[in-house]
Amino acid sequence: MKTISITSNNLSTIFEQIQNQLGGNLEIKSKEYRLEINNETAKGFVSGISVEPAISYIEYDVVFKEDVTLTYRHDNPSSIHFGYCSKGNLTQSFGKNGQKNKLAQFQTGIFSNSSKKRTFLDFKKDEDVKVSMITVDTLSVSDKELKNHLQETFLLHQENNEFSYIGSFNLKIVEKIDHLSTISQQGLIRNLLINSTVYLILALEIEQHKYDSINAESNCYSLSQSDMEAIRDISEFIRNYPEIQYSLKYLSRKSGLSPIKLQEGFKIMHNRTVTDFIRNVRVEAAENLIRTSELNISEIVYTIGLTSRSYFSKIFKAKYNCSPKHYQNQQNRLAITA
Length: 338
What we know:
Blueprint: E1 2-6, H1 11-22, E2 25-29, E3 32-38, E4 42-52, E5 55-64, E6 68-72, E7 79-87, E8 90-94, E9 101-103, E10 107-113, E11 119-123, E12 128-137, H2 144-155, E13 162-169, H3 172-180, H4 187-215, H5 225-240, H6 248-255, H7 259-270, H8 274-292, H9 297-303, H10 309-320, H11 324-337
Parallel strand pairs: 1-6
Antiparallel strand pairs: 2-3, 3-4, 4-5, 5-12, 6-11, 7-10, 7-12, 8-9, 8-11, 10-13
Helix pairs in contact: 3-4, 5-7, 8-10
């Protein structure tokens, strides 16, 4: 087993330490770091972003060719690590012989501990793993409200100066993580978009902890990893085929989930009921057709699976604050002047 030791919160030092222990080619652009590794130890990428002096983001998208333990140890007991597993799974523990906490795909893990113990993350040989880690130094956070919330929630009431939490499954976070790799802008705009996305990921992870804490004692209905994968698949199917006349019974049969699980899954992933999600997908598909096709409004209504033009106008106006016809006229004027 190989051990990789990280002893700093400073992103530049972290990547220097990882490169020294794993090898690879390191590219640094502004506040972004990307280490490409392809050797006898690992294959993949480690990327990082310095959001502000108190907040950094690191993503490990790597297949290790032997069992690897990544250890965090530094003299700052005020740091909190917000992890999320997009692919595969790994385990976390405090100390070499500490209790093992499994972080599975689509789960959030939040960890903090005293400077006396290391945080261990264990990666299995030949397993394709993608895990993201936002590290926050609460003493240096510029936002006072965020600082107080993090300290009160994750530091002040630690047992043995340790905090470890594995959340329920959340698919909204993986969408935001995937969005980071699609940002193509450069310069200031790129920095602002990246920073705002990392803050949003952090907010979703804090929200997930709050949601789990509220429902921990109520036996609230929970979904498994395979359930959440089915929700994501059926959501994508609806996006691809908005014209189908969906019913809860049809979606339940196609996804293999009960109607109750469907509704709970859509609430967790999209913050909408199944019906609201379908309606929103259709309106967004219609807006795209108005901008990109020569279809008239009646044809668009039929194409997205609706039969009532007046109903379509109502739901379109509720989302875009104007009628479909007015929106189409605006697009045509823009096309003429372009």
